[in-house]
Design brief:
Structural class: mainly beta
Number of strands: 22
Number of helices: 1
Strand order of the largest sheet: 1-2-3-10-5-8-11
Strand content: 35-45%
Radius of gyration: 18 Å
Largest sheet: 7 strands, mixed
Helix content: under 10%
Order of helices and strands: EHEEEEEEEEEEEEEEEEEEEEE
Length: 276
């Protein structure tokens, strides 16, 4: 397990891009046949990526979790962004097509990830937060997610949001998770930028070429810093930071939030003219 030790809003203005990456950014998440887990002190989230080939991958526990199994005191959200796969949770198997979601409840002992075809492997992106109660494991195909159309071509932020792990679909403890797809010609993931002090947010950008980048903005509105991100890495954005990004092309991204409030619209917008 890797670790991200974040910084506070007083320290980040003097940090270099390298230091910011060490505090908030994971390594590339998907390596053929391997599992990657990163623990961040931003709300004690764990960020994961798994790309099973011919052999399945079981999610292990780690001594740092002080738990007998990974989900003993945690909930887990999984979204597949690759080929067809399956997730087995305590003996029950859930088939996972591309952009399907699975919520794994606290108390689930065995979570095993597999690909249907090693030549077209699944890519399981995972977010886990501490959970205070046992709920229910729920499979959410992309077609069952709540679909929202936002933005416009004129403002370069026309996008479709698929809310898969959210109240009304999944009874989670604090995790809210889904996918946003930007239309061709749109590059802003949200406009205007926003904050939500009551929860943190983790972003993972994908469906863009390795030569392209998303410029992710972080920090306070009067002290904005920008990190260019390659595809399929994740960035943990703390509650005191703005949430926004702009790409060199259109892309998709998975957003995940944990904190006090699960309402998607609970955000405080910031006018672009107020950024500096």
């Amino acid at each position: 397990m890797n670790f991200l030790f974040s910084t506070n809003k007083r320290s980040y203005p003097s940090m270099t891009n390298h230091e910011l990456r060490e505090a908030f950014l994971t390594e590339p998440l998907f390596t053929p046949g391997a599992l990657s887990l990163t623990y961040t002190d931003v709300d004690r989230a764990v960020i994961g990526g798994a790309m099973p080939l011919s052999e399945s991958i079981e999610i292990p526990t780690h001594k740092e979790l002080a738990a007998d199994y990974f989900c003993e005191r945690r909930e887990l959200g999984i979204i597949n962004i690759g080929g067809k796969g399956a997730v087995e949770v305590d003996g029950e198997t859930y088939d996972m097509a591309m952009k399907d979601s699975l919520y794994v409840s606290r108390g689930s002992k065995n979570v095993v990830l597999s690909s249907v075809d090693a030549n077209s492997p699944a890519k399981f992106y995972m977010i886990s937060y501490p959970a205070h109660r046992i709920t229910k494991t729920v499979y959410v195909p992309k077609s069952d997610a709540k679909k929202i159309e936002l933005g416009s071509q004129e403002t370069s932020n026309e996008r479709t949001i698929f809310q898969s792990i959210r109240p009304g679909i999944v009874d989670s403890c604090q995790l809210v998770m889904g996918i946003t797809e930007l239309k061709s010609g749109s590059v802003w993931n949200t406009k205007p930028p926003h904050t939500h002090f009551r929860r943190t947010e983790i972003y993972m950008y994908f469906e863009l070429e390795q030569s392209e980048r998303v410029f992710h903005m972080l920090g306070e509105p009067k002290e904005v810093k920008t990190l260019p991100l390659a595809p399929e890495v994740a960035i943990a954005s703390p509650s005191w930071s703005i949430h926004s990004g702009v790409g060199t092309t259109n892309y998709s991204f998975i957003w995940a939030m944990g904190g006090e409030n699960q309402e998607f619209d609970d955000m405080d917008h910031i006018e672009i003219s107020a950024l500096s």
